[in-house]
User: Which sequence fits this backbone?
C-alpha cells in the first residue's frame, strides 16, 4: 500500500515536471517568436527610416533641382514637371482697394464664402464675414454641375442673409474673387481652363473646361447676380492677402490638404510670356510645385505603392510626400506592413488598418505630439480609429517614432522647396541694407501640426545659414487666400473709376 502510494507520487511528480518543462518550452518559444517578430518589426522601421533620410546635402540637391525645373517651366509650356502658371496678376494689392467684394474659396476639404469691406487709402479691411462648409465626398467625384451648384447655393444663402447696407447701387453687379485651388491654365485674370484635379477630386467633365464659365453657368442657374472679377489659385490669394498687410511678402506657400507655392517673378525672366510687358515689370507665378519630382527625392516603397494606387498616379509626387492629405496614409501603410509581416499588433492583422485613408494626418499629428508619459493619446487613437486595443507602451513609442520619420521628411523637403524658390529669386544669400523677404504661409498642416512647422522652420534656417536666415521671414497668413481673392477682385473691378472717386 505504502509502496503503491509511492509509485503514484513518483509518477505524478514526473508528469508534473514534464508539464513544467513543456510550459517553459512554450514560454521560451513564445518569447523567441515575439522577440523574432519585434526584431522584424524594428527592421521594417529601420529600413523605412533609411529610405526617408534627408541629410543637408540631399536637401540642397532637391533645392537645386527645384530651381532648375523652375527655369525650365518658365521657358515654355510642357518643358517641366513644374507648370509655372502665369497668374495674370502683375499688380499686387497696395492698400488702395476699396468697396465691398466677395470671395469663394474652393480648396480641398472645406470651402468658404467671404464678404470683405475694403476701405482703401491704406485703411485696410473695415469688416469681413465668412461662412464655411465642407464639401460632401460624393461631390468630389460627381459632375461639374453638381459641385458648382452646391457652392453657388451656399453663396446665394450668404448673400440672401446680408444686411441692407451691402446692397449694390442700381445697375451695379456684385463682384467676386474665385479662389480655385487646382492647376488652371489662365487666359486672363478672370478665365482659365482646369488642367487636372488633385487632392482626391476627380470630376472628368470639368477637366479642360473654363472654370469661370462653369461657375457663371451655376450663378445663372441659381439666379445669383454676380460677376467673377478674378480667378486665383490659393497661393496667389495668399500672396495678395499677405502683401496687403506686409509689403515684403514675395512668396506664398500652402501646406494643407495639398501643397503649392507662388512667387513674384520678373516678367522678363518668363520666356513663355508673349503678352505686353506689365508696367510693374513683374508677374506672379503659380508654380504648382506639388507636381515636382526629382531623382533626389527620398521615396520609399510605401510612397511608390501609395502613388500607384492613387486617383492620380505619377502626378503630384512632391505633394504625396509632404502634404496633409497623404502623411497619415503613409503611416497607415507602414503599420499595415508591420502588422502583416511582423504581427506587430498580435496574430491577427487589424481589419481597419487595411482601409485606405482611415488614418488622417490630424490624428497622426495628435499622436506625434502626445506628451503624456504613457502615450495615452496614441493608445486611444489606435483603439478608436483602428480598433487596436491594449497596446504596450513599447508599441506606442514605435508609432510615435514612425510619425516623426514621416513628418520630418515632409517638413524638411518643404523647406528645401522654399530654398529652391529663394535661389531662383536670388534671395538665398545675405542681403544688404536689412532687406527682408517674407514668405506667407497658410494651410491646415502648417497651422496645426506644430512639430512639422517647427521642423520646417529649423530646417530652413539650417539650409540658409545664420546670416541669410535673418533676412527671410516666414509668416503665417491666416486665411489670406480668400481675402486676397477679394482684393484682386477689387483691383480688377469693372467699376474702378467709380470706386476711386
Ligand atoms: C493644387 C494647387 C493648390 C495646392 C494647395 C494642390 O493640389 O494643385 O493648385 O494650390 O494643392 O491647395
Assistant:
Amino acid at each position: 500500500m505504502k509502496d503503491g502510494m509511492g509509485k503514484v507520487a513518483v509518477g505524478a511528480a514526473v508528469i508534473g515536471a514534464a508539464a513544467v518543462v513543456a510550459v517553459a518550452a512554450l514560454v521560451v518559444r513564445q518569447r523567441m517568436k515575439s522577440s523574432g517578430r519585434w526584431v522584424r518589426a524594428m527592421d521594417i522601421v529601420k529600413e523605412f527610416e533609411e529610405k526617408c533620410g534627408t541629410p543637408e546635402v540631399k536637401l540642397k540637391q532637391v533645392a537645386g533641382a527645384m530651381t532648375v525645373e523652375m527655369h525650365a517651366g518658365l521657358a515654355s509650356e510642357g518643358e517641366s514637371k513644374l507648370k509655372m502658371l502665369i497668374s495674370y496678376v502683375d499688380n499686387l494689392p497696395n492698400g488702395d482697394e476699396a468697396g465691398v467684394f466677395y470671395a469663394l474659396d474652393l480648396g480641398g476639404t472645406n470651402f468658404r464664402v467671404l464678404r470683405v469691406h475694403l476701405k482703401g487709402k491704406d485703411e485696410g479691411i473695415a469688416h469681413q464675414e465668412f461662412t464655411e462648409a465642407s464639401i460632401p465626398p460624393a461631390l468630389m467625384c460627381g459632375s461639374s454641375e453638381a459641385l458648382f451648384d452646391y457652392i453657388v447655393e451656399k453663396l446665394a444663402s450668404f448673400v440672401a442673409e446680408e444686411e441692407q447696407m451691402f446692397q449694390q447701387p442700381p445697375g451695379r453687379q456684385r463682384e467676386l474673387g474665385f479662389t480655385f485651388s487646382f492647376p488652371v491654365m489662365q487666359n486672363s485674370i478672370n478665365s482659365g481652363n482646369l488642367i487636372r484635379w488633385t487632392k482626391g477630386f476627380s470630376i472628368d467633365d470639368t477637366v479642360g473646361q473654363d472654370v469661370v464659365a462653369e461657375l457663371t453657368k451655376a450663378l445663372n442657374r441659381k439666379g445669383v447676380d454676380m460677376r467673377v472679377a478674378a480667378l486665383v489659385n490659393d497661393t496667389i490669394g495668399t500672396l495678395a492677402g499677405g502683401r496687403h498687410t506686409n509689403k515684403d511678402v514675395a512668396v506664398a506657400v500652402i501646406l494643407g490638404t495639398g501643397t503649392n507655392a507662388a512667387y513674384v517673378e520678373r516678367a522678363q525672366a518668363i520666356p513663355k510670356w508673349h503678352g505686353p510687358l506689365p508696367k510693374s515689370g513683374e508677374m506672379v507665378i503659380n508654380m504648382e510645385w506639388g507636381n515636382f519630382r526629382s531623382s533626389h527625392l527620398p521615396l520609399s516603397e510605401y510612397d511608390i505603392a501609395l502613388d500607384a494606387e492613387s486617383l492620380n498616379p505619377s502626378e503630384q509626387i512632391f505633394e504625396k510626400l509632404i502634404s496633409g492629405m497623404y502623411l497619415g496614409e503613409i503611416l497607415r501603410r507602414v503599420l499595415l506592413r508591420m502588422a502583416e509581416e511582423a504581427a506587430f499588433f498580435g496574430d491577427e492583422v487589424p481589419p481597419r488598418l487595411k482601409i485606405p485613408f482611415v488614418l488622417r494626418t490630424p490624428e497622426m499629428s495628435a499622436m506625434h505630439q502626445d506628451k503624456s508619459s504613457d502615450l495615452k493619446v496614441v493608445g486611444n487613437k489606435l483603439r478608436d480609429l483602428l480598433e487596436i486595443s491594449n497596446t504596450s507602451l513599447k508599441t506606442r513609442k514605435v508609432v510615435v517614432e514612425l510619425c516623426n520619420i514621416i513628418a520630418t521628411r515632409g517638413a524638411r523637403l518643404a523647406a528645401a522647396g522654399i530654398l529652391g524658390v529663394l535661389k531662383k529669386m536670388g534671395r538665398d544669400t545675405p542681403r544688404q541694407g536689412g532687406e527682408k523677404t517674407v514668405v506667407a504661409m497658410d494651410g491646415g498642416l502648417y497651422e496645426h501640426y506644430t512639430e512639422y512647422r517647427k521642423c520646417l522652420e529649423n530646417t530652413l534656417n539650417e539650409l540658409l545659414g545664420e546670416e541669410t536666415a535673418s533676412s527671410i521671414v516666414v509668416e503665417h497668413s491666416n486665411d489670406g487666400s480668400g481675402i486676397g481673392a477679394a482684393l484682386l477682385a477689387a483691383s480688377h473691378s469693372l467699376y474702378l473709376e467709380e470706386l476711386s472717386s
Q: What stands out?
A: The radius of gyration is 28 Å. The domain at 84-246+277-282+478-500 is CATH 3.30.420.40 (Nucleotidyltransferase; domain 5).
